[in-house]
Specification:
CATH class: Alpha Beta
Structural class: alpha/beta
Distance between the termini: 24 Å
Largest sheet: 5 strands, parallel
Radius of gyration: 15 Å
CATH superfamily: 5'-nuclease
CATH topology: Rossmann fold
Oligomer: single chain
Shape: globular
Helix content: 55-70%
């Protein structure tokens, strides 16, 4: 069975802005999936027709993984623990919430999460072990 790879929002944003990650993404040897949470974040920020076209193609190209009920419930528990340990504000916890959901979804499928958002995902990794790759 091939390894599963899930790309974080930061990877797609970098690719949309620079176009430089396409070859690196194409060189992944494994099964590439996308996250419903990542797609939601990308659609939220899509302002140009070219971005919307990119997202429609992305949705067709890779199967979409969706957080489970357990992922949603665990995300709240993890964020509560982070708040308790680090004293983060509600705003910072809200910013982290989708990242926690992306991480838990990847973990549920045994996938490796690829991100360029080192600080947030290394923090999340301390609370729920991930297969994490930072570009």
């Amino acid at each position: 069975m091939s390894d599963i790879f899930i790309l974080d929002t930061s990877i797609f944003v970098n690719d949309l802005r620079t176009g430089r990650l396409g070859q690196k993404v194409e060189s992944i040897t494994g099964v590439l999936r996308t996250s419903a949470v990542v797609l939601a974040e990308l659609w939220r920020g899509a302002t140009r027709p070219s971005e919307r076209e990119y997202l429609r193609a992305l949705t067709k190209r890779y199967p979409i993984l969706t957080p489970t009920e357990k992922n949603w419930l665990d995300s709240g528990l993890i964020l509560e623990k982070i708040r308790s340990d680090l004293g983060f504000t509600p705003e910072k916890l809200r910013d982290l919430h989708f990242d926690v959901l992306i991480a838990l979804t990847a973990r549920s499928y045994g996938g490796r999460l690829i991100t360029s958002n080192r600080s947030d995902f290394e923090l999340i990794d301390r609370y729920c072990k991930l297969k994490l790759e930072v570009w």
